[in-house]
Amino acid sequence: MQHPLTPEPSPTWPPASLVPATFSPASSTTLSPLFEWACHVTAGDDARLHKAKMRDMMGRLKLPIGNNAHLRFDGDTPMAQNIGQAVVYIDELILERNSSDLVKLAERLPSRLRLDRDKPSMQNIGQAVVYINELGNELNRSRADAEQLKSVQAHSLSEIYALHSRIYALQAENVSYRHSLAQQGHKIRELEAASTLCAGVHRTDIKCASSPTTQTLPAAQSTASIQTDGAEDKSKGAWEQDCVRDRQRSQRAELNALLPPPYRQDSHQPNVRASMEVNSSLQFRRRLLNVCAAIDYLRMLHATIKDLQRELAARYRCADCDCGDDSAERMSRGAFGR
Where is this region: Disordered (predicted)? Predict the structure, then answer.
């Protein structure tokens, strides 16, 4: 019995799987050198055999990463020729890339700077740089103009607000003038009615004084009441005349009370009536002239307000171009009531 510490004998090498079925000592000269070398390798040389198998793979890992098919050696052509073709291919790739960049740059040029060629050349680069610089300067100028227009717009808005306040003041003044004009018109109508009443009373007094029937009316009435049957009708007519006279006297008294103290008529001064009429007519003319002047001034104010409204509408149109003429006119009408 074998001792347990005794090492087992090494297995037979090479194994049966590596030996061909037609192996014979006579045909051993036809085996490959690798097989012959492997037949003499013992079991302890597995690590060296593994390194020998991996040596080819380690050599492949040293190749550059990427598609290097154009640099591979096919074995039929010389190495120098392959390298030359690879260099030419790389130069063509670089030229094509530069040409595509030039095409993209030339597309940004205006038509007057483009060359009549299939592919742009290096001459376009300077023109493109100059054109791009011009565009940058134009952009800066546009920004400066925009800032200036913004400042002008702010100044225009301040002027518009000032014109608004001025228009409001003019409208308030217009309302006050209209109120005063209405009061003056009311006073003028009262004076016209008073002057008409005075003229009518004066004419009635003149007619009553010039008619002989009114002078001899009491005597005729007394004789007629005694002599004829129509005394009742005459007395009735005389009573109506007395009523008319009393009414006229009361109207004169009321009119006299309405007049100022310097123009009031006393009962003992019958000649003051004519001077009163003259003074009232002169006052009426003066007041009428004042009213005409006030009307002219109001017309002038109305024209000024219209001009300011038109100017405001024009300023709004200039400040905001999106806003049309109709909208500006509607805005001015809505803001100023006309």
Answer: 212-242
